[in-house]
Transcriptional repressor NrdR
Amino acid sequence: MRCPYCQSEDTQVKDSRPAEDGAVIRRRRICTVCGGRFTTFERVQLRDLSVIKKSGRRVPFDRDKLMRSVEVALRKREVDQERVERAVSGIVRQLESSGEPEVSSDEIGRLVMDALKGIDDIAYIRFASVYRNFSEAKDFHDVIDEITASDIATGPIEDD
């Protein structure tokens, strides 16, 4: 693993432990040249995926781009980072296990919306405004009504 500080390839693993319920290995590393310390994550990749954009263009799937999109929606919201990691890993697992080598950007957006709905209503609305290309205030009202109707349908959670 190349050191992010000095670009040396001479690094050592100091500690390894499972993360994300065992789906990822977290490794603490140290560079033997500059002494820099950094963390890497090792995760299983079942297959290479391509994303079909709305324009018809095909691009390689990028987990980091997916993570950035979710993080933008969650900006300034108090959500545990581990929960975000689990949600993104779940989306990636769904995409990889679908058996299809290509996935539409619409499908990815739908999966993100489903995940955000269970994490944070405000993030869900933020993401929906971009994903559904809101053009007027009424669009926000419609999504808020969806959330409210969903909350009413599931009812309050009561402790016994």
